[in-house]
């Protein structure tokens, strides 16, 4: 029954999408969108990938790598992102990260209905934060066999004063005035390092992943701040977790070639220090020369990312596919 509801996807004939309607929220109707790679390998292993902030799934190469290693590939465009962003909605807008749990519940239900039995839940940046929290308390968390977090967003890349004072203050305002706009304060140089129209290697839909990130509001900041506080207090995710991140943070102001070989969005020290708090079975490794989205790094670097990932998956997952 699920098979007949898939539609052609924007990525072309190798992918198809399934729109999953969700209950309306404070902005009106809501959907999320599950993307599936066609021609899946045999077996019951699968991955469900969740994108980052001002982002959506477009990484064809990543899907091909998972399929080459025997995993069915699925990706989820969360509500108000990419394929799921409806005209009446504010891009990326949520007031509690738990709002995304319904999206993950729906996606995992489809994977299970399609025969997936060993499911890897993967998230990049903000998606990494979301899937980690879901693995702690989501309704279908028991369906997840392992987590792979690609440069997860576990702390603000801000000065100590901003993190200690300004962010908590703005988050408090978000309780009463969630729609109040605030600067996102993210450099355009990172986007320029990715898209082939500028300095990068990749082609993707700029209206869904613009060079200058979407504005944020105090309600969104409050949701992120609450998620960060929960990570800082410590989670107890029982599944094995792999966290990969770059070995360095961009330090240059403005455009620099450093964006091609370092994390231009987050502070890798935060990732390294906070990741062990996710649970008792966390593996953390730095990728030399990695960009913020590691799988968009230069070819030799992303080859190393996939080597680390699939060696780890081979070690931690049950033997039978």
TrEMBL record:
<dbReference type="InterPro" id="IPR022742">
    <property type="entry name" value="Hydrolase_4"/>
</dbReference>
<dbReference type="GO" id="GO:0016787">
    <property type="term" value="F:hydrolase activity"/>
</dbReference>
<dbReference type="Pfam" id="PF12146">
    <property type="entry name" value="Hydrolase_4"/>
</dbReference>
<keyword id="KW-0378">Hydrolase</keyword>
<protein>
    <submittedName>
        <fullName>Alpha/beta hydrolase</fullName>
    </submittedName>
</protein>
<dbReference type="InterPro" id="IPR051044">
    <property type="entry name" value="MAG_DAG_Lipase"/>
</dbReference>
<dbReference type="InterPro" id="IPR029058">
    <property type="entry name" value="AB_hydrolase_fold"/>
</dbReference>
<feature type="domain" description="Serine aminopeptidase S33">
    <location>
        <begin position="46"/>
        <end position="294"/>
    </location>
</feature>
């Amino acid at each position: 029954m699920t098979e007949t509801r898939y539609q052609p996807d924007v990525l072309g004939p190798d992918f198809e999408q399934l729109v999953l309607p969700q209950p309306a929220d404070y902005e009106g109707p809501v959907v999320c969108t599950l993307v599936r790679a066609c021609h899946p390998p045999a077996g019951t292993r699968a991955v469900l990938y969740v994108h980052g902030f001002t982002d959506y799934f477009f990484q064809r190469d990543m899907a091909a790598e998972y399929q080459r290693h025997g995993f069915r590939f699925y990706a989820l465009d969360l509500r108000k992102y990419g394929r799921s962003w409806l005209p009446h909605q504010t891009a990326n807008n949520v007031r509690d990260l738990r709002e995304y749990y319904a999206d993950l519940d729906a996606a995992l239900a489809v994977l299970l209905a399609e025969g997936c039995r060993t499911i890897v839940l993967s998230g990049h940046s903000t998606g990494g934060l979301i899937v980690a929290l879901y693995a702690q308390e989501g309704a279908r968390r028991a369906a997840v066999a392992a987590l792979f977090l690609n440069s997860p967003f576990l702390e603000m890349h801000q000065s100590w004063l901003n993190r200690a004072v300004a962010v908590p203050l703005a988050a408090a305002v978000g309780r009463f005035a969630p729609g109040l706009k605030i600067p996102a304060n993210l450099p355009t140089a990172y986007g320029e390092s990715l898209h082939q129209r500028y300095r990068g290697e990749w082609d993707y839909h700029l209206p869904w992943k613009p060079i200058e990130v979407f504005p944020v509001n105090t309600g969104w900041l409050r949701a992120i701040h609450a998620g960060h506080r929960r990570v800082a207090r410590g989670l107890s995710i029982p599944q094995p977790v792999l966290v990969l991140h770059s070995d360095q943070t961009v330090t240059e102001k403005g455009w620099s070639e450093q964006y091609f070989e370092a994390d231009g969005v987050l502070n890798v020290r935060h990732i390294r220090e906070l990741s062990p708090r996710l649970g008792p079975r966390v593996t953390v490794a730095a990728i030399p020369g990695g960009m913020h989205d590691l799988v968009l790094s230069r070819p030799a670097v992303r080859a190393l990312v996939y080597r680390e990932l699939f060696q780890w998956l081979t070690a931690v997952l049950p033997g039978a596919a």
